Amino acid sequence: MKPTAEHHERMAKMTFASVYPHYVNKVEKKGRSKEELHQVIHWLTGFDDSKLQELVAENATFKTFFELANLNPAAELITGMICGYRIEEIDNPLTKQVRYLDKLVDELAKGRKLEKILRN
Fold this sequence. Notes:
The protein is mainly α. It has a two-stranded antiparallel ribbon with strand order 1-2. Helix 2 packs parallel to helix 6 and helix 3 runs antiparallel to helix 6 (93-109). The chain is built from 7 helices and 2 strands, in the order αααααββαα. It has helices at 5-13, 16-29, 34-45, 49-57, 62-68, 93-109, 114-117; strands spanning 81-82, 85-86. It is globular, with a radius of gyration of 13 Å. It has one domain: Helicase, Ruva Protein, domain 3 (Orthogonal Bundle), CATH 1.10.8.
């Protein structure tokens, strides 16, 4: 499936605060911790816990979230399918970054070892 311009626009306007609780619920339901989730987000974006809470409180959009992020250079190693999209085929940088995050959260929830998730 190829993302449309409308899909890209929707991703840019979606707030991190609206999705973050779903990330937490997803990983905790599968026996992983919020701390592990934060470790994964920190690896991808460089954000510490206080910056994450600040972005949630500010209702930052994903556009703002990733503009402020210091994306890990190894993020390009994140490949595969997520939400019906093949990550490496997404041509919009912001949509690709959001799907990187989705993929990492999914891998964490599926029980993958942190060393593998963090591409060490």
